[in-house]
Predict the structure.
Amino acid sequence: MKVCKNVWLLVSLLCLFCACKEREHDRFTISGEMKGLPKGVVKLYTNPPGNVLLDSCEVKDGKYFLEGKITEPQAGLLFFDMEPQYQRLGASMVAIFIEPEDMKVYSELDEVKKTLKITSAPINEDIHRYNVYLKSLPEKQLVAEFNGKIQMAFAEARMEEVREMSRKRDSLQMVIIDRLFAFGPGVSKSP
């Protein structure tokens, strides 16, 4: 009988441990730093159309900590409310992918887009890897050049040139898409 009680106690503890582990699976934390921002408030929202506030906190000496629960990874936005003397272009809103992980986010106030680094977050790391690869493609630069030329031709009502350059640009974009899928063969091509 005593062995039976010990087995039930062990099974009960195991079930409790598994239940606790399962609850932690949907938790996320973000340990962040925005170097150069001494104080402010940061708020984490899900992307539209939901726009759900997941957490907020004060920024102290550039550091902040956010936590919460999500049922699945999703796109989100960090909004930084800061005093006017600290406001910089692109610093008040930072796009991230919220994952049920202990994420680390680093950026510098003066160059948020260039210095943004998200670690301990596999999806964000993959997105960064794809963006670096995308920027290295010569077709990407050509698409940007075509966009500028198309805007100029459109402004001058040269519609035949707009159509011709748009076809060339679209063809280049298809090459970029094919290269992206070749770069990451595990990515699904379905919407």
Q: What stands out?
A: The CA atoms of residues 148 and 154 lie 10 Å apart. The chain has two domains: 26-112, 137-183. Residues 159-183 form the longest helix (25 residues). Residues 1-7, 9-13, 19-23, 185-191 have pLDDT under 50 and may be disordered.
